[in-house]
Write a structure and sequence with these properties.
Blueprint lengths: L1 H10 L2 H22 L3 E10 L5 E12 L3 E3 L1 H11 L2 H23 L6 E5 L2 H4 L4 H12 L6 E6 H5 L2 H13 L2 E7 L5 H7 L4 E4 L1 H4 L6 H16 L3 E4 L5 H9 L4 E2 L22
Helix pairs in contact: 2-3, 4-6, 6-8
This protein binds ligand C2E and calcium ion (3 copies).
One calcium ion binds next to strand 6.
Length: about 280
């Protein structure tokens, strides 16, 4: 075993050791971050087209590291998924977002967004009783099931039976299901035949260049037709310009999200409406 170990060590790229050490350090720091309140949530508006009226918000996690400052969720969420801490982090996200939705309802009344959208990773979805946790959090906060949207990715749901069972159970509770980053996975259309989905979040990659490239417009337009045909709501993600918004509206999109309508913020400006003109 020693010889094998040495063999392997000889083939190791020293930067790989650094990488493994870095991953361990990150895992330990995530634990501390959760225990000492270094995470917070920001909320990005999802708007109706063409009015720009905010219908819901998506909760997005932020990590302000005491030494390194802002760490992107694109970097630490995959690490938390690998070491399993995403289960606890995700529960914190769910509780905090649902509680915030109820607070806004109390302080803003009808001006509060109708729904709160929460990202749920595959690891969380396949926990033994994830639907039970959601039921408990809804009861604990007083948020209605119909006011919660759970965002899952295609790869998460396609991962297997347990995830599909969980999605069905959530749907039974009255929670809305959104398929995130739609179109980027391998089985988008197959999945729509078997999983109860309410919302399709059409990935930013289909929105980018929509005004410049006929090919992008054709695909974005095909996706809205699938969505409409199945009676789903399509949300165009990553809309950055008024031109993109106008083009999306023209080809039939009625919901959008992106910096053009509002960046993620701790307290979004719910009065602000960015109506599209055309
Ligand atoms: P996502 O769920 O696809 O979230 C959308 C990402 O696009 C967010 O990045 C958002 O800030 C960004 N975005 C929104 N509009 C625009 C735009 O117009 N232009 C550009 N360039 N970007 C835009 P963020 O917050 O950095 O999150 C990255 C990813 O991390 C998320 O992608 C999601 O997969 C994951 N994530 C974030 N928060 C959570 C969470 O609470 N739980 C889990 N499981 N994953 C999370
Ligand atoms: Ca999302
Ligand atoms: Ca997305
Ligand atoms: Ca994404």
């Amino acid at each position: 075993a020693k010889a094998l170990g040495e063999n392997q060590r000889r083939r190791y790229d020293p930067s790989m050791d650094d990488h493994a050490r870095e991953q361990n350090r990150l895992a330990a720091e995530l634990r501390i971050a959760l225990d000492t309140g270094q995470f917070h949530l920001v909320y990005q508006p999802i708007v109706e087209l063409p009015s720009g009226r905010i219908t819901s918000v998506e909760a997005l996690i932020r990590w302000n590291h005491p030494e390194h400052g802002f760490v992107s969720p694109a970097d630490f969420i995959p690490a938390a998924e690998r070491n399993g801490l995403i289960v606890e982090i995700g529960e914190w996200v769910l509780r905090t977002a649902c509680a915030q939705a109820v607070t806004w309802r109390q302080t803003l009344g009808d001006r509060a967004p109708q729904r709160m959208s929460v990202n749920v990773s595959a690891r969380q979805l396949t926990e033994p009783d994830f639907p039970g946790l959601v039921t408990e959090v809804l009861a604990w906060t007083g948020l209605g099931a119909a006011n919660l949207i759970v965002e899952v990715t295609e790869t998460a749901v396609f991962a297997g039976g347990q995830a599909v069972l969980a999605v069905n159970a959530l749907h039974e509770l009255g929670v809305h299901i959104a398929l995130d980053d739609f179109g980027t996975g391998h089985s988008s259309l197959t999945l729509l035949q078997t999983v109860p989905v309410d919302v399709l979040k059409v990935d930013k990659s289909f929105v980018d260049n929509i005004t410049m490239s006929g090919r992008h417009a054709v695909i974005a337009s095909a996706l809205i037709q699938v969505s409409d045909g199945l009676g789903l709501i399509a949300v165009a993600e990553g809309v950055e310009t008024g031109e993109q918004a106008a083009e999306l509206h023209r080809i039939g999109y009625r919901r959008a999200q992106g910096y053009y309508f509002g960046k993620p913020a701790a307290e979004p400006d719910f009065e602000r409406t960015t109506a599209i003109t055309v």
